[in-house]
Amino acid sequence: MTPEIKNIAVFTSGGDAPGMNAAVRAVVRASIYYKKEIFGIYRGYEGMIENDLVKLNARSVSNIIQRGGTILKSARSKEFRTEEGRAQAYQHLKARHIDALVAIGGDGTFTGLHKFYEEYKMPVICIPGTIDNDLAGTDYTIGYDTATNTAVDAIDKIRDTALSHNRLFFIEVMGRDSGQIAINSGIAGGAVAIIIPEEETTIDQLIEKLDETARNNKKSSLVVVAEGGKSGNALEIAQQVKERYSYYDTKVTILGHLQRGGAPTYFDRVLASRMGVAAIEGLLQGETDVMVGIQNGKIVYNDFELTMSKEKEIEAEALRIAKILAI
Amino acid sequence: MTPEIKNIAVFTSGGDAPGMNAAVRAVVRASIYYKKEIFGIYRGYEGMIENDLVKLNARSVSNIIQRGGTILKSARSKEFRTEEGRAQAYQHLKARHIDALVAIGGDGTFTGLHKFYEEYKMPVICIPGTIDNDLAGTDYTIGYDTATNTAVDAIDKIRDTALSHNRLFFIEVMGRDSGQIAINSGIAGGAVAIIIPEEETTIDQLIEKLDETARNNKKSSLVVVAEGGKSGNALEIAQQVKERYSYYDTKVTILGHLQRGGAPTYFDRVLASRMGVAAIEGLLQGETDVMVGIQNGKIVYNDFELTMSKEKEIEAEALRIAKILAI
Amino acid sequence: MTPEIKNIAVFTSGGDAPGMNAAVRAVVRASIYYKKEIFGIYRGYEGMIENDLVKLNARSVSNIIQRGGTILKSARSKEFRTEEGRAQAYQHLKARHIDALVAIGGDGTFTGLHKFYEEYKMPVICIPGTIDNDLAGTDYTIGYDTATNTAVDAIDKIRDTALSHNRLFFIEVMGRDSGQIAINSGIAGGAVAIIIPEEETTIDQLIEKLDETARNNKKSSLVVVAEGGKSGNALEIAQQVKERYSYYDTKVTILGHLQRGGAPTYFDRVLASRMGVAAIEGLLQGETDVMVGIQNGKIVYNDFELTMSKEKEIEAEALRIAKILAI
Amino acid sequence: MTPEIKNIAVFTSGGDAPGMNAAVRAVVRASIYYKKEIFGIYRGYEGMIENDLVKLNARSVSNIIQRGGTILKSARSKEFRTEEGRAQAYQHLKARHIDALVAIGGDGTFTGLHKFYEEYKMPVICIPGTIDNDLAGTDYTIGYDTATNTAVDAIDKIRDTALSHNRLFFIEVMGRDSGQIAINSGIAGGAVAIIIPEEETTIDQLIEKLDETARNNKKSSLVVVAEGGKSGNALEIAQQVKERYSYYDTKVTILGHLQRGGAPTYFDRVLASRMGVAAIEGLLQGETDVMVGIQNGKIVYNDFELTMSKEKEIEAEALRIAKILAI
């Protein structure tokens, strides 16, 4: 039987995502609701190793639900990948009487925490916070909805100028190993083609599509490219198309880090709020070494190993829709 | 066996919702993709009775996926509720060789179409477009995601002034019989209390909550009220609180019709795109007198009667979360 | 000759306005740049009387330039209107060795500060922060640009639904004694008529205009009403129009306090930054009992009395443009 | 004496800018207000040469005031730079009885029109539409306010992630020969340094500034770079800083074409509305071969030659403010 949990610490780690603050707020307030002490660790595993933590109360997290980024800051730590680093972290936590950990982050974060749990058996739980939505075991990760809307808002602006000049734009969105943002921002942005890491698109296929729609009187076009596509990045693809297809004046925009920031959408705030409460309730019910997820609208707890061993399926149905609509 | 469908007409009806244009676009392009002729009827049933329809092509719906409102316009028709009105509509449709109808709207729209189907047996299918998200048979209706984000964006702005002045704001959001927008914009807006039509909240309970958080050092507060609440509208509730609880300076804002407009979110555009394609594919596979829905991420076709006979359940779990976080 | 200024205090007062934080930041950093100590007073004159002030440094105002509201909070103080209140405030300031005051607010704020200056001869300077843009002596006040854009953004959303339903909307914007927000959001929103406090519009004139444009094939219309119009508020005007003119289905939206919040525009941030620096530079050059203003793009210092004695002229030229464009 | 003007044509040319549609609308409606016929030419000089023009009425420009881009489309034309091209254009215009031209664009557009006027003496007038705000003879060009706000909105999002990770970001904004967007988005974005084409900044100076603020406890920083800076583009500058200064993790974002699109701000819509009316009123009062401008809030008409011969002064005062605030 697990000994009673009295003091919990929460931290954010890896790439920041909009909604992380909403998750921190939920973890803090749920802890207080259940009469536990709650601490915040700064800069993820780095702060853990450097003993950089502070006690939080309900007001510490007032007025942050709407803010992008993370008030606890984030970092990637090389030291925590070593046994010594983890030992150091454990000693600091023990000295402060921390009984359990809540991590908000992506798969790198989970890997570290899983190892830590195996070594020290301190109860740990993870909340998926990453704009990429690339984790098995949850339908949505925190930040994905906001990032996709940010991408779509940028695509809408670029469409204005594409339309005015009868141009072809290649727009690169985030998602190194995952085409999720590309697929959904592509459909929502009315893209003529969407290029994702999970599926190969040849330059021939792309030019054929562009030509088919041009013959169908389309005067301007957008192609959305996920940053990690096999056919190259947006600049490379655009260059190849340009050399062989001159119907359009061709331009490239790389959206970059602005996709990470901004006030989270209602969806990400509610998701983060639910997951934050679920993390604390899970911990108190004995869940450990698991990730909180949402599947078919319901909270679930999945083993880290499952989460990390499986790839998320690509949305074949969404790609089919995208093709029907690009005529 | 249904005779082959060759000519389809699409219309929007009832209160407009962001994403209706994306649904029109998807219906039009999917029809063309499947080699059908597609017509647009203006102003819903009114235009049907007045024979106000026009042939559409793939370019007719270019550059509308991002626009609020509906290019086909909408209206509420008294005449279509009469047998004569529906007979007139049928004659016009027949004269134009229309074989099937796609309606985008809410429950009023469906009721009319169901009657029309029972009388004339013309294949019909509905797409749920309403910001209220109050239809059984689908997890989400088109427009709900956008409207909730619009409400949250307004709440964020009001929070700035509430915080600066240590004030209490009552914010009325849309949802005459449904607390969906209120619940989710309330959680996302960090509201101290959420008042919905489906559940009674007494002034005593409300004041107790306000006082509890004030004692917990909260300096300003937001209460989100759905327009159809049993305890009265936002003005009435605010007045009653004001008379009995003077800790805060109290203000009221009624968000009103701005919740209906604006560029749709990615979610509403993708949902509308999927449902628009599904409506055409359903029709062509023999579905009729049904509403397209999305349940657990998958497209479903539900009988109108089921859709209209059942009330959507309130999100008890969401309300529970809201209470834990408002401390 | 003025004795050297060493310690300056800054506060915000009256209705909050977006950009106040940018002004606070500029005042703080300019003070430090010129080697002065800088203090923040909370809740305006109330905090002054209650001795609620704190020393600030360059990092105290990091990451606030983009935030609506005011980190120093604001309030309206009855006590400061009394001699005793001001005496109390002066004693606290003296005890903390404060040599000069910078106020950010509107005309109520200035009136109080002018009296304080006359009584105690402590150097004081004002920065105009109010969304109403109703102060003589400056072309723009901080917050006006943001509030007008917020109003226009809301009008755009309402237009979507007005267009879809062929409706007439009355939209009430802020500006109790000033039609500035109404005029400019009305022109930018494509309003058919704009009703402001400074000019009478009869219901006859309004109906005539509506009818003229309807005959000219206009299918939906927006009327923007400043909250303090002589012809009544938006609800009253709409009611009168409705009774006599039935061409349109008529609706009303009152934008309310959401116009006060939100991230400030670049214009308000730059204006606030310039004015904040100018306030400190003015004080150090011996300016006192003046308001910082901007006229024809240049910083000016105008006597309070001039600022408060003159009314800002209405923009006759803008109204003329509005009429030409509403056809 | 000029013969009476009866038929006017309007077109947009060069890079598109938000607010061009508002200017088109104003030109069209003012023409009709003054009982003139008004035509729209598509794709600027290209459409003129290809005789691609259409008669417009008050309703042709309904519901476009809020849209980015230009409904008349834009293009750059090589042929119009030749005598033959201009002769062809003139013949088409004459055949359609066009008496006067209104151009909306930047300096390239003006150069062409000036030559055309010298050759054919047809009355012509220009409206400055370009996001760069780089034209002498007007304080503001249409599109600049919107583009700067778009840049600031992106910078705000990037700040969220910069803050979370203690990073240094280089953000490249538009303005090939003009630092206007960079200066004002830099001040509004709280940038530690702003690099513009008009002024040299050495890598040494930049590193010194970064180091000074870092010693002053600044944990993350933003540098805004105009695309045409003498010290290189954002990628090159970032690379040089990275090699010599390792305190921060350094990233680059190039905002690109999204700065051209989006719904125009109230300021750009009102400016465009005023300039559109002024263009028609100017033409009808005999102004020709001039650009409409706004100086100190008043409409002016300046000779093209003056406009094109003078460079706009850089905002030295703004740069001074930027330096004071970056501490």
What's the layout of helices and strands?
Four copies of one chain form a homotetramer.
Chain A: E1 7-12, H1 20-33, E2 37-41, H2 44-49, E3 53-56, H3 83-95, E4 100-105, H4 107-120, E5 124-128, H5 144-165, E6 167-173, H6 180-188, E7 193-195, H7 203-215, E8 221-226, H8 234-244, E9 249-254, H9 266-284, E10 290-295, E11 298-303, H10 304-309, H11 316-325
Domain Phosphofructokinase (chains A, B, C, D): 7-282
Binding site for substrate (chains A, B, C, D): 130-132, 167, 174-176, 227, 251, 257-260
Subunit structure (chains A, B, C, D): Homotetramer.
Structure description:
The first copy, chain A, is elongated and about 70 Å long. In chain A, helix 1 links the parallel strand 1 and strand 2. Helices cover 42% and strands 18% of the residues of chain A. Chain A has a 7-stranded mixed sheet with strand order 3-2-1-4-5-10-11, with helices on both faces. In chain A, strands 7-8-6-9 form a 4-stranded parallel sheet, sandwiched between helices. Chain A starts with 6 loop residues before the first strand and ends with a helix. Chain A folds into 2 domains: 7-143 and 264-309, Rossmann fold (3-Layer(aba) Sandwich), CATH 3.40.50; 147-260, Rossmann fold (3-Layer(aba) Sandwich), CATH 3.40.50.460. The model of chain A has no long low-confidence stretch (mean pLDDT 95). Chain A has 11 helices and 11 strands. The interface between A and B is large, with 49 and 49 residues.
